[in-house]
Design brief:
Layout (H helix, E strand, L loop, with lengths): L4 E4 L3 H12 L4 E4 L4 H6 L5 E2 L1 H9 L4 H6 L1 E3 L2 E5 L2 E5 L1 H4 L5 E3 L2 H14 L4 E2 L3 E6 L7 E6 L2 E6 L2 E4 L17 E16 L9 E3 L6 E7 L2 E8 L10 H12 L11 E15 L2 E2 L2 E3 L5 E2 L7 H22 L3 H4 L1 H23 L6 H16 L1 H12 L5
Parallel strand pairs: 1-2, 1-12, 2-8, 5-14, 12-19
Antiparallel strand pairs: 3-7, 4-7, 5-6, 9-10, 10-11, 13-16, 13-17, 14-15, 15-16, 17-20, 18-19
Helix pairs in contact: 1-6, 1-8, 8-10, 11-12
The structure holds flavin-adenine dinucleotide (FAD) and P-hydroxybenzoic acid.
């Protein structure tokens, strides 16, 4: 098989890239290791920045997103038993975030891809990259039990943090920057109406907690936990008990309901530089990871592939490699802005160490964000997504 762009991974990055290329008349083939059911059910991100929504709507994917997405114009920061609203839209000239599950974005993208018969192979095994430094890079893989090969002009590595693309780059080329946090997030999905209209980010001496949602009947909540803690140590009663303690506020109650999904995710910051080698371009989690406190991972992945689609269009149209050559530097500007914001939100809101001094600093920072319009505006413009970075 031969194609223009070989895409490894059918997460938000790979699927959005294929969609943007299709709209520009550029062919691609997507190879995905998992099944369609698996990628459509995987519960992950929930917050779309204004720019991500604008891109999806502007490329014909807004139908269900407009109907089911829930627009939020503020968030609550809760600490010391009190809530403080950050009015994001008022502080950013009307910009907002939209709550719409990552798996819904993935379902919409797969639906659009299949509607125009775009090649998308699920359950591919043994994906391996070859000849990246030549003009004819290849991907070998096994599908339906048969070995096969895809010859491409370029390869897009959109296979997430644990994929194979980044590791196909020869040793010594990439500079890796990494920070592991000494905590993880236990996330639950519960069939109960959210106890809040807007997201609540809570700082508490027992640890961070987040109240998010997916729909008027589905709540999504997170707790800061030890990253190595077995999930079996967290029966449902313990999860609810801990959530009640960390969200405690006079006159407010947390509604409980059946937990239908539960998992622990480690937290890390990671960047591989540059995001390109030969004819391989890395995008999304394959190149960088942020801790989820800033709600940025999916959004920055979508930004990467927007930059890549524009660069490939320019190359096919005019033969100019200028945008492709600046792909990595253009993406990394936003990646590092988002790394800084995600690190800021993480260290602002998590219990870092049992140290009274650190705790007082965090409370002072929180009080500042909640009392200074300048500080709140800085948080808000990063949270809804900066237009120009
Ligand atoms: P992925 O979604 O990881 O997709 C990669 C795909 O490649 C997968 O389908 C995988 O199966 C496939 N693959 C892997 N290896 C191979 C292989 N060898 N061959 C073929 N295919 C392969 N981000 C936000 O913006 N907002 C949020 O609110 C938010 N909350 C989050 C909450 C949690 C608990 C977590 C874990 C993440 C959150 N994120 C959030 C981050 C977001 O989910 C990721 O950044 C996003 O999934 C990145 O998309 P991607 O396409 O780059 O990678
Ligand atoms: C989510 O709804 O899953 C979510 C919301 C905000 C975050 C992270 C995750 O910062």
């Amino acid at each position: 098989m031969r194609t223009q762009v070989g895409i490894v991974g059918a997460g938000p990055a790979g699927l959005t890239l294929a969609h943007l290329l299709h709209l520009r008349g550029i062919e691609s083939v997507i190879l995905e290791a998992r099944s369609r059911e698996y990628v459509e059910q995987r519960v992950r991100a929930g917050v779309l920045e204004q720019g991500t929504v604008d891109l999806l709507v502007g490329t014909g994917l807004g139908e269900r997103l407009r109907r089911e997405g829930i627009v939020h114009s503020g968030i609550e920061l809760r600490f010391g038993g009190e809530g403080h609203r950050i009015p994001m839209s008022d502080l950013t000239g009307g910009r907002a975030i939209t709550i719409y599950g990552q798996q819904e974005v993935v379902k919409d993208l797969i639906g659009a891809r299949l509607a125009y018969d775009g090649p998308l192979l699920f359950d591919t095994a043994d994906v391996a990259l070859h000849d990246l430094e030549t003009e004819r890079p290849r991907i070998t893989y096994v599908h339906d039990g048969r070995p096969d090969e895809l010859e491409c002009d370029v390869i897009a590595g959109c296979d997430g943090f644990h994929g194979v693309c980044r590791d196909s780059i020869p040793p010594g080329v990439l500079e890796l920057h990494e920070r592991e946090y000494p905590f993880g997030w236990l996330g639950i999905l519960a069939t109960v109406a959210p106890s809040t209209d807007e997201l609540i980010y809570a700082y508490h001496e027992r640890g961070f907690a987040l109240h998010s949602l997916r729909s008027p009947k589905l709540s999504r909540l997170y707790l800061q936990v030890d990253p190595d803690e077995p999930i079996d140590d967290w029966p449902d009663e313990r999860v609810w008990g801990e959530l009640h303690l960390r969200f405690e506020r006079d006159g407010w109650t947390l509604r409980e309901g059946p937990i239908i999904e539960k998992g622990i995710t480690p937290m890390r910051s990671f960047v591989a530089e540059p995001m390109q080698h030969g004819r391989l371009y890395l995008a999304g989690d394959a190149a960088h990871i942020v801790p989820p406190t800033g709600a940025k991972g999916l959004n920055v992945a979508v930004h990467d592939v927007k930059v890549l689609a524009e660069a490939l269009e320019e190359w096919y149209r005019s033969g100019s490699t200028e945008l492709l050559e600046s792909y990595s530097a253009t993406c990394l500007r936003r990646v590092w802005r988002v790394q800084d914001f995600s690190n800021y939100m993480t260290t602002l809101l998590h219990r870092l160490e049992a140290d009274g001094f650190e705790d007082r600093l965090q409370r002072a920072r929180l009080a500042y964000v909640c009392s200074s319009e300048a500080a709140a505006r800085s948080l808000a413009e990063n949270y809804v997504g900066l237009e120009n970075v």
